[in-house]
Amino acid sequence: MSIDRTTTSDVIIIGGGAAGLMCARVAGLRGKRVRVVEHANRCGKKILMSGGGRCNFTNTGTTPANFLSNNPHFCKSALARYTPQHFIDMVEAHGIAYHEKELGQLFCDESSKLIVKMLLDECADAGVRIDTSCSVEGVEKTDDGFRVRTTLGELRAPSLVVATGGLSIPSMGATGFGYELARQFGHTVLPTRAGLVPLTMTGKPQERFAELSGVSLPVTAQCNGRAFSNFMLITHRGVSGPAILQISSYWNVGDELLLDLLPQADAFETLKSLRASRPGIELRTALAEFFPKRFAERLCEVWFPSRPIRQYNDPQLREIATFLQAFPLIANGTEGYRTAEVTLGGVDTDELSSSTMMSKHLPGLHFIGEVVDVTGWLGGYNFQWAWASGNAAGMAV
Ligand SMILES: Cc1cc2nc3c(=O)[nH]c(=O)nc-3n(C[C@H](O)[C@H](O)[C@H](O)COP(=O)(O)OP(=O)(O)OC[C@H]3O[C@@H](n4cnc5c(N)ncnc54)[C@H](O)[C@@H]3O)c2cc1C
């Protein structure tokens, strides 16, 4: 579709992802003339690939504590005004079947496509005009608002919403455009880095885990005062799985990262009672009762040579137990934006209104979604932030 050479609307939204579509819908329902400019050939590509194709669209337990930001209070207002229940009501109104997987995480029964279709249908009903395959070439402030030069023509509006997302998965259309625009208008952009991302290992630490690729086990991962209990997956380059993705957002290269490999048990008491009940069993056989066999064998090959368990005295068993419950994971980096689910950092919240997402420097300019320095945990929180911040701006423009 081509845009007329110069078109005026009430609000221009750059980015037709989760936050942008929600904002467009809300503003459209308020009677605003809304234009969405999306440079990819379709909207909501990240929604489509989310949750393994089933979109973990919210988390019923969402609280501000589930988000990382330089200002942990910033997200409170928007989250309080657009709750998971608001989104669930819309999902139900569209007849989309869903289920709770674990820990309040809601997924579509069928496909993420239904969430994108729902948002596009809502936008269409609200009279929103969306232009896909449309790139922004420049943005200027004018006396009465903003002029946005695009590959399809020029747009003007008194309000401009930047909803261009973060840097993760560049192949899906992610760009640093929102950060550049923020800087253009005098905003501080806090340093960005990949979050919810697998960790990589090299050298000895990696060799020790070699051949265990594919092994998965429950752990508690701890770093910088945070702990997440869930599964860890050993990959051919390092570690992944929900426990690792969660802790990755709190980890920086060089930080100590400890794994409790037996999070449900007191390892020392467990080993001692095994020694009492079955003194003849080999340590590797004993450990294989708690860990995948290949992992138990590797522990004995690398860290504690296996002998019949009766041959270990209390201090030796305690040493093994301490190692199992505070295993130092030596990672050297992350897989980066190529596979990260989110981008930490971004547009500094100190320069935005928490109720409208509007710039404190430039009235009419709003930033929403992942481009803002608010990042959720794994489990539907990032979409809830996209919906909530999109709603906050959509109500204000
Ligand atoms: C693999 C993967 C799985 C995920 N799964 C989940 C999940 O299950 N649950 C969850 O809560 N979160 C999940 N996330 C995170 C979630 O997708 C994001 O936090 C969320 O999409 C952010 O919304 P947004 O609108 O800010 O950005 P996006 O949804 O990324 O939308 C930004 C849009 O802006 C467009 N754009 C970028 N630059 C320009 C430009 N210059 N001009 C025009 N358009 C532009 C992009 O093409 C894109 O359509 C997942 C992320 C990934 C990568």
Automatic annotation (TrEMBL):
Secreted found in the keyword field: no
NCBIfam families hit by this protein: aminoacetone oxidase family FAD-binding enzyme
Transmembrane segments: none
Name of protein: NAD(P)/FAD-dependent oxidoreductase
Keywords, in A-Z order: FAD, Flavoprotein
Keyword Transmembrane helix: no
InterPro entries (UniProt xref): BaiN-like, BaiN-like_dom_sf, FAD/NAD-bd_sf, RsdA/BaiN/AoA(So)-like_dom, RsdA/BaiN/AoA(So)_Rossmann
Record-annotated RsdA/BaiN/AoA(So)-like insert domain positions: 193-342
Listed cofactors: FAD
One Pfam family it belongs to: HI0933_like
Domain RsdA/BaiN/AoA(So)-like Rossmann fold-like: 10-395
